[in-house]
Amino acid sequence: MKILVCISHVPDTTSKINFTDGDTKFDTNGVQFVINPNDEFGLTRAMWFKEKQGAQVHVVNVGGPETEPTLRKALAIGADEAIRINTPATDGFSVAKQLAAVVKEGGYDLVIGGRESIDYNGGMVPGMVAKIIGANFVNTCISLEIEGTDATAIREIDGGKETVKTALPLVVGGQKGLVEESDLRIPNMRGIMQARSKPLTVKDPVDANAETTAVSFKKPAPKGAVKLVDNVDDLIDLLHNEAKVI
Amino acid sequence: MSVLVYTESENNTYKKVAFEAVSYAKGIAEMLGTLVTAVAVNGGDSSQLGKYGADKVLEVSNEAYNKFNAETYASIVAEAAKQESANVVVLTSSANSKFMAPLVAVNLEAGYVANVTELPESTSPFKVTHSVFTNKAFASTEIKTDVKIIGLAKNAYGLKENQAAAAAETYTPNISENNGVEVVSVDKATDKVTIADAEIVVSGGRGLKGPENWGMIEELAETLGAATACSKPVSDMGWRPHSEHVGQTGKPVASNLYIAIGISGAIQHLAGINASKVKVVINTDEEAPFFKAADYGIVGDAFEFVPQLNEKLKAFKAQNA
Ligand SMILES: Cc1cc2nc3c(=O)[nH]c(=O)nc-3n(C[C@H](O)[C@H](O)[C@H](O)COP(=O)(O)OP(=O)(O)OC[C@H]3O[C@@H](n4cnc5c(N)ncnc54)[C@H](O)[C@@H]3O)c2cc1C
Ligand SMILES: Nc1ncnc2c1ncn2[C@@H]1O[C@H](COP(=O)(O)O)[C@@H](O)[C@H]1O
Fold this sequence. Notes:
The complex is a heterodimer.
Chain A: E1 2-6, E2 9-11, E3 19-20, E4 25-26, E5 33-35, H1 37-53, E6 56-62, H2 68-77, E7 81-85, H3 92-106, E8 110-114, H4 125-133, E9 136-147, E10 150-157, E11 160-167, E12 170-174, H5 189-197, E13 200-203, E14 212-218, E15 227-228, H6 232-242
Parallel strand pairs in A: 1-6, 1-8, 6-7, 7-13, 8-12, 9-12
Antiparallel strand pairs in A: 2-5, 3-4, 9-10, 10-11
Helix pairs in contact in A: 2-5, 3-4
Chain B: E1 2-6, E2 9-10, E3 13-14, H1 16-32, E4 36-41, H2 47-50, E5 56-60, H3 70-83, E6 86-91, H4 95-108, E7 111-116, E8 122-123, E9 126-132, E10 137-143, E11 148-152, E12 167-170, E13 182-188, E14 200-204, H5 215-224, E15 227-230, H6 232-236, E16 257-261, H7 267-273, E17 278-283, H8 290-293, E18 296-299, H9 302-320
Parallel strand pairs in B: 1-4, 1-6, 4-5, 5-12, 6-11, 7-11, 14-15, 14-16, 16-17, 17-18
Antiparallel strand pairs in B: 2-3, 8-9, 9-10
C-alpha cells in the first residue's frame, strides 16, 4: 500500500496572529511553524500502517522552501520520502489540483489529509482531491482500518459517529481519534539524523489558477471588560435582562 | 441567475441552520436582484422556508437518500445549481455540509469559501468576509469563478424573517448512484442536544477534579436545555468522551451562551469557542486568562456556585415558563 500524507505548514497553536503590509499579509515574524495538528494524527496513523502492514509512506506539501523544516520533521517522525510542490499555497482549489497531480503520478492507494488546516480553516483540500481523482472520500475521520483494498472508517457526525465501509483508492480528512494524543511521536535524535538523508523532492507545479484570493485581513474588535458578580441571582438577572440569552 | 441554498433537515424537520442559511441567501439575492431557490432532501414543511425568504423549494423525496451520503448529496446540490443557473450556492457549517462542500465545488468548478460570517462586502468583485486562524482573525476573500460557493458560519448571520412564496416543486435529480462509501451503522444519542445545534453549551474543565463531579454539569445543562462540552485534557484523561472536546483541535462552538466551569482559558480553548456570543466563566482563580475573554464571571468555587446556579435557574425557568 502506498500512502500519501498531505501536510499543511501552519503557525503553532499559541501564535499571536498579526498582519503586515496594510493588513494584506500574515505576519510570520516570531511565529513558529508546525505540522498542522490534524495532519499529525493522520501521519501517526500512516506510521502504524507502515509498521504493521508494510505500507510505504510519503508526505507532501504545496508551498515555498520555508516549509521544508516541517517536511523534515515528518520524515523524522518516520515518513519514507517527502515531496514539495514549489508554489505558494494561495487557495484550496489550486492546492487540491497540485496534490491531485501528485497522487495520480505516484499511484497512491490512500491519501490522508486533515479535517481542516488551523490557519485558513478551509476544510476543503482533501475532499477536492478525492473528487478530482475520483477516489472515495471520508471526512472527519476518527478511525481507519484497511484490509486488502477494503476500508472501514468511523466518522464524527454532529451529535455522534457513524461507521462506513469503503474501498481504496481512498482520501480521508482526519483528526484526533485516528490515533490518540498519547500516540503522537516526538522525533528522536536517530529519526532526525535519518531524516537528513531521506529524499525530499522538489517538483514544479502544474497549471492551476487560484479561484479565490484573500485580499485583506482584520482582527476581531477588542472585547469589553468582564462583568464580575459574586452571586448567582445577579448572574441570572444579567443573562436574562442584559444579554437576553436565557 | 439565482441563489441556491441547501436546507438541511433531520427526521423530516428543517434544522435551525436551514432557516439561517435561507435568511442569508435572501440577503444575497436582494443584493443581486434575484430569487432564492432552496433544495431539500427528504425535508420538512417547506412553507417554513418561505418565512425566511425562499421563493421556490426543490423537494427531493427518495428513501434511498435517507442516510447522508456526501457524494450523492453533493451531486443533488450541483445538479440543482445547474438547473437553476445558480451563481451563488449557500451551504452551512454542519459536519455534513462541510463534508459535501468541496465535492460540490469541484463538480461546479466553483470557488468555495468556508466560515463566512457576513453578507458579501461587494458582489462585483464578489468579496466575502470569513473567519480564519480559528476565530483569531477575519479575511476578506474575493471569489473569482462564475459560480460562488459560500459555507455560512454558524450563528453569525442569524435568522431574518422575509416572507416569500416558497413554491414547492418535486425535484428528481438526474444523478448516478454512488455506493463508494456506505454507512453501516450510526451511533448517535437522540435524546441529547448536540454541540453543533445547541443554543447554550455548558462546559467543564480540569478544575472539576474528576469525572464523578460531572453530575452537576449535566444537571445544569438539563435545566438550560444545553449541550455539555469539556476542555481537551478532560477528554484526554477519559473523564468525558472525545466528542465533547471543544477548542482549536476539537469541536468549534458558536452558541448564544457558553458557560465555562473550571476551565483556565488557554489560547487553544478560546480559539474554538470564541464565536459564541456570550461567555460566562466560573473559576476560583481571578487571574485565569478566561476572564479576559468572558462577558460575565464569578470568581469562586464551582462546587459552591454551580449547584446554586442550577437551583435558582430552575426557579427562574418555572416562573418564566
Ligand atoms: C496543539 C495544542 C492544541 C490544543 N487544543 C486544545 C483544544 O482544542 N481545546 C482545549 O480545551 N485545549 C486545547 N489545548 C490544551 C490547552 O493548552 C490547555 O492545556 C487546556 O485547555 C487546559 O484545560 P483546562 O482549562 O480544563 O485545565 P487547566 O488549565 O488545568 O485549568 C483548570 C482551571 O480550573 C480552575 N479551578 C480549579 N478548581 C476550581 C474550582 N473548584 N472551581 C472553579 N474553578 C476551579 C483553575 O483555577 C484553572 O483555571 C491544546 C494544546 C495544544 C498544545
Ligand atoms: N499547502 C498544502 N500542502 C499540502 N497539504 C495541504 C495544504 N493545504 C492543505 N492541505 C491538506 O488539506 C487539509 C485541509 O486543509 P484546508 O482545506 O486548507 O483546511 C490539511 O489538513 C492538509 O492535510
